[in-house]
Known about the structure:
Catalyzes the phosphorylation of D-fructose 6-phosphate to fructose 1,6-bisphosphate by ATP, the first committing step of glycolysis. Helix 1 runs parallel beside helix 10 (283-301), helix 6 crosses helix 7 and helix 8 (201-213) crosses helix 9.
Amino acid sequence: MRIGVLCSGGDSPGMNAAIRGAVLRGVDVHGFEMIGFIDGWRGFHDGEFIELDRPTVRGLSPLGGVFIGTSRVPPWEAPVTPESLDALRAKMTSYGLDGLMLIGGNGTQTVSSILWDAGINVVGLPKTIDNDLAGTDYTFGFDTAVSIASEAIDRLRTTGDSHRRCMVLEVMGRDAGWIALHAGMAGGAQAMLLPEFPESIEQVCEWVANVRDRGRSALIVVAEGFKLEGSDDAVTREGLDGFGRPRLGGVADMLAPLIEERTGIETRSTVLGHVQRGGSPTAFDRVLATRTGIAGADAVLSGEWGNMAGLHGDRIEMVPFAEAVGKLKTVPEERYAEVRLNFG
């Protein structure tokens, strides 16, 4: 059995640990041959790959990033056609592959589903710091991003308190506010602004003023995809991202002067950005990623193609792609409502 491992989309802490888990189980235990394509689909198209074995993955678990690289290069030119799928099959045959192990988020696992529907053997390992992939309770990378954002909140609070300032921290989250919600709760933020639930600037300022009236300095966590009530679009920067979408960023910079103007409270913004993706993964993410990689290799052995390794409770279970893709796992209204009562 010869398996190709490929990472796609943005990097996420724990990807190295996932590859290591898959290789140690797949090569050492099951006797597979495994290769890793360099920079995702680019390496697949260009024939650039490395053999994966125990020495290759030695010491990877604590390392951030992904040692074989990842990219947003697509597997085919849109839209997918029978010809493009045939070309992909021919490439796999030229590499002597029996199947693929795709590590990625919603977009990658959607590709996995298309491949499986076309009769191509594939298993998926779910990663994304946004935790917005259905079919799994948590994706590896999320816990690390939340931990980094929580530390940023701790640091911003001390400087905010020193100057009686309101601090606005922008974290990642285009369509789902899981990072903002969890980091805000962990750091004791006075409000968390999520893409799923627009709020008016008047309401945000009322929360900030309430904090001031109690003798405290407010700290607001906002997801990059948050929209003010009545606005149809999120705040964007110039250019497009790797998927051709407007590049988000700057909502904290937009909110800070509005809050200061309406409340008279000096307000500063901080955009955390790609710091959330970098550095060593937390112990939780290392363990989750390793278990996910092991489960993926075991699924290949048992012929459970067409599935993604999802976390359900404390168990890693294989989930059909049809149950995992095509919909985002957003923050439920009840989760937001329970914390909103304590805002301000």
